Amino acid sequence: METILVREALQRSPGSDPVRVQGWVRTKRDSKGGFSFIEINDGSCMKGLQIVAEGSLENYTSEVLALGTGCSISAVGPVVESQGRGQTVELRAERIQVLGGADPETYPLQKKRHSFEFLRQLAHLRARTNTFGAVCRVRNLLSRAVHDFFQDRDFHYVHTPLITPMDCEGAGELFRVTTLDVEGIAGKGDGKVDFAEDFFGCSTYLTVSGQLEAEALACALGRVYTFGPTFRAENSNTARHLSEFWMVEPEIAFCDLDQDMDLAEAFLKSVIDALLSKGQEDMQFFDQRIQSGIVETLTQILESEFRRIPYDEAIRLLEDSSKEFEYPTTWGNDLQTEHERYITEEVFQGPVIVYNYPSAIKPFYMYVNDDGRTVRAMDVLVPRTGELIGGSQREDRFEVLKARMEEKGVDPEEYGWYLDLRRYGSVPHAGFGLGFERLVQFVTGMANIRDVIPFPRTPKSALF
Ligand code: 4AD
Ligand code: MG
Q1: How far apart (Å, rounded) are the C-alpha atoms in residues 437 and 435?
Q2: Fewer CB within 10 A of the terminal residue: the chain, N end or C end?
Q3: 281 Cα to the center of ligand 1, angstroms
Q4: Ligand 2 center to 272 CA (angstroms)
């Protein structure tokens, strides 16, 4: 017998041979006529499959009648035309096997709507709800679209280390990796730790970005990208920050900032296009339940050109606005979320790329412009979410890079290999990083980034 997914069953033409479907009970209705309607979902799509269980089934009274939300079953029977409304086909069960019960007294996902806060405590079960099932499927679709985009353009998917001695962003937001006896060291109380004794013989951390190593690979393979987890011990308790998040980082040799911006724009459009065409059912759900108009907004993004403005102009727009901002808007300050939202939502009503930021607020690796005070950085900003992508043309001039390191307090000795890339066959190159959860958040309209990753890690919270 053929075992098929709910998604496949829903597409079958009625009157087929018996098939087997398996899933979790969402609802059950018992009819007075002595039969029951059971709706099951198996994660293959948003919609459930209705199973009609006749009273003549051998375990009808002993087991089927007792089924409730959350139970897992396997059902066998033909897919037939449905008599009821709301579905075109249903499975007329010839056999139902109960695989796992779920005590209705304690099963936490009863039919009523639960708040996202409540569901966060139930991350092990929440993928069974419509919203989180859809989030997981959207993540999957977007992941595939990311690979498709780069693979179609001759990029090589490369794997950069997760454990590293480097602090790419220079922000000091690092999670230390150690096998030292920290309790024992703390007990001694002299405050001195000899990291030469540590597992790797030096200080190591979880990576904040794969960029530096990706640069080395781009300067050999031409076009590369990474797509992996990154970690930031940033004490930001916001709806946009995670301590562990996934980042997509392309790195391209023989590329300048303009080409980098072109790539970022084409990339975003491509993954959104793939999502809208392959994820219609889930996107309809987000449009109806989470963020009204999101499908239209995304469609418009495909059709429009991203505005590109230098940082100078962004500052002028902020200063000329009559809005009261919490953070300063004078030249030299970093753009805060409130500024990014004003520019994208109120001024341009769409994605905006801001480029040429002050060198003082950006990391050591960015290419210094001729004005000496700005670097070739670019951020892609979108409504609601703010910064989705951060990227730059990299400094490829040995002396300038070395001077920038010294200026930023980065020891050139420790970055010898990185400087080598400028010592031997240096080329202009550029890249960017897309925060994958920010993208998922943006396209689904989910308000909190904790609800677009299955098991979120945030300050003071690492459940599951
Ligand atoms: O702007 P960021 O810090 O850039 C870099 O790490 C570069 N090395 C990337 C590169 O050029 N290869 O981070 C890139 C993106 C941000 O635009 C944002 O979308 C996301 O990563 N991001 C976060 N997402 C969730 N939680 C956090 N704490 C994030 N920090 C950054
Ligand atoms: Mg950034």
Answers
A1: 6
A2: N
A3: 30
A4: 21
Residues having CB closer than 6 A to ligand 1 are 168-169, 209, 211, 232, 234, 241-242, 245, 247, 249, 387-392, 431-433, 435, 437-438
Which residue's CA is minimally distant from atom 11 of ligand 1?
A: 432
Reduced to 3 states, what is the DSSP secondary structure of residue 208?
Answer: coil
| Ligand 1 atom at minimal distance to the Cα of residue 250 | 12
Q: How far is the CA of 149 from the centre of ligand 2 (A)?
A: 22
Segments in 153-237 forming alpha helices (H): 182-188, 211-221
Q: Assess whether pLDDT exceeds 90 at residue 16.
A: no
Q: What is the mean pLDDT of residues 424-434?
A: 98
C-alpha distances out from residue 450 to 25, 174, 275, 295, Å: 26, 20, 21, 22
Atom 22 (ligand 1): residue with closest C-alpha? 435
Q: How far apart are CA 313 and CA 115, in angstroms?
A: 41
The protein residues having their C-beta less than 5 angstroms from ligand 2 (an ion) are 390
Residue carrying structure tokens 């998917």: 157
Which pLDDT belongs to residue 86? 84
Contact 47, 82 (CB under 8 A): no
CA distance 320 to 374: 22
Closest by CA position to 445, among listed 274, 285, 247 = 285
Q: Which residues pair with 39 in a beta bridge?
A: 27, 50
The pTM for the full model equals 0.97
Give the ligand 1 atom nearest the CA of 232: 28
> What is d(CA 104, CA 107) in angstroms, rounded to the nearest whole number?
5
Is residue 366 a contact partner of residue 393, using CB atoms and an 8 Å limit? Answer: yes
Are the C-beta atoms of residues 367 and 394 closer than 8 Å to each other? Answer: yes
Closest Cα to residue 458, out of 237, 296, 257? 237
Task: Give residue 353's pLDDT band: very low, low, confident or very high (50, 70, 90).
Answer: very high
Take atom 1 of ligand 1 and give the residue whose Cα is closest.
390
* pLDDT for the residue numbered 189: 65
Distance of alpha carbon 40 from alpha carbon 456, whole angstroms = 27
pLDDT in tens, 24-47: 999 999 999 999 999 999 999 999
